[in-house]
Design a protein that fits this description.
By secondary structure, the protein is mostly helical. It is built from 16 helices and two strands. A two-stranded antiparallel ribbon has the order 1-2. The radius of gyration is 21 Å and the shape is globular. This is Ferric enterobactin transport system permease protein FepG.
Length: 362
């Protein structure tokens, strides 16, 4: 690819020629990208909002603490009781809310890039439900522990994606057909999951139902470290696949002209996107809405794509889930809610707005 072709490929940058951009390059140009000042300001604001939400999550609870006391527990001298409350009890949940929100946002960005459709997210296509089915099967077989549940979640999501891919394939995979087939599989898997919960014993059904609502209740550091380690690896992979996402958004013909292996790249994005979703589902259950909304909100705020777009999407997803978790814990005093119930409630309103906006454009 010539230098002229490379520059013409950067459609989002060329679309805003008057916007000043900073060019970031690593040694030997292993990684280079352009960041406009609007994106820097928006990402900085998102980070500040995320820090404020984190402090609120660590301050609120049955024992309410001042923000200064929280900072002392994290970085300075404090009592053992305060450190236990902040660091051992509240911090794991707050950190996982940030990490899982980022994971869902990245997963949604990959599937929306693949389908080139604002509705192309794992929860709409049915991959969340497939991961849930995989976990239920593992529970039925007596599996316990994070590794077994994570394996069931990943296998269930991959199996669902394979079926959706096969049924949607017709001289390649088109985004709209993938969404329609995914919605159909989501409906079928919902029925399967309901049948499983009806047939199992009451204790297992109650445990699966609470987990299936999407919850971070009772998370401590032993449960937090494995998904955080996997999350780090997946984020590095996401940086590598970001250029493929950008090329696929140009359309299949344009991407093929640039030498991109279409179906191989689509399968890679599907696998990485499912891995992000399965990571969250294995620990917290299926959490809807974040993967659907975060990529669109980030695009509207920053108008960025590629690696920079993934960073802003991850920040928006982290902020959405962190705020939802704070609301879930403290909206009704003495009655903590599953965070998935909060995201679904917000997501219903967002989906109505999105459908109205898309209808107005057509």
């Amino acid at each position: 690819m010539t230098a002229v072709e490379q520059e013409s490929h950067r459609a989002p940058v060329a679309a805003h020629p008057a916007r000043r951009a900073l060019v970031v390059r690593t040694p030997r140009d292993l990684l280079s990208f352009r960041v406009d000042r609007r994106t820097v300001v928006v990402c900085a604001a998102l980070v500040l909002a995320l820090v404020a939400t984190l402090i609120a999550a660590l301050s609120l609870g049955s024992t309410t603490l001042r923000p200064a006391a929280v900072l002392e527990a994290l970085f300075g001298e404090t009592t053992r009781a305060t450190r236990t409350v902040v660091v051992d009890w509240r911090l794991p949940r707050a950190v996982l809310a940030i990490a899982f929100g980022a994971a869902l946002g990245l997963s949604g960005a990959m599937f929306q890039s693949l389908t080139r459709n604002a509705l192309g997210s794992p929860d709409v296509i049915g991959l969340n439900m497939g991961a849930y089915t995989g976990v239920l099967v593992v529970m039925l077989l007596g599996g316990a522990g994070w590794a077994a549940v994570a394996t069931g979640s990943l296998v269930g999501g991959l199996a669902t994606a394979l079926l959706v891919y096969v049924f949607a394939f017709q001289r390649g995979v088109q985004g709209f057909r993938l969404i329609i087939v995914g919605i159909a599989f989501s409906a079928m898997l919902t029925s399967v999951n309901t049948w499983i919960l009806v047939k199992v014993d009451v204790d297992l059904a109650l445990r699966a139902a609470v987990w299936g609502a999407g919850t971070l209740n009772g998370v401590r550091w032993p449960q937090a470290w494995p998904p955080l380690a996997v999350m780090l690896v997946l984020c590095l992979v996401a940086v590598v696949v970001a250029p493929r996402m950008r090329q696929l958004e140009l359309g299949d013909d344009a991407a093929a002209t640039h030498g991109l292996g279409l179906e191989r790249s689509k399968v890679l994005l599907i696998v990485v996107g499912i891995a992000f979703t399965a990571l969250v589902t294995a620990t917290a259950g299926p959490i809807a809405f974040v993967a659907l909304a975060a990529p669109q909100a980030a695009r509207r705020l920053t108008r960025a794509d590629g690696t920079v777009g993934l960073v802003s999407t991850a920040l928006v997803g982290a902020l959405l889930l962190s705020l939802a978790d704070v609301v879930a814990q403290h909206a009704i005093p003495g009655l903590p809610l599953p965070v998935g119930a909060v995201t679904v409630s917000i997501g219903g309103l967002y989906l109505l707005w999105l459908l109205a906006a898309e209808t107005g454009r057509s």
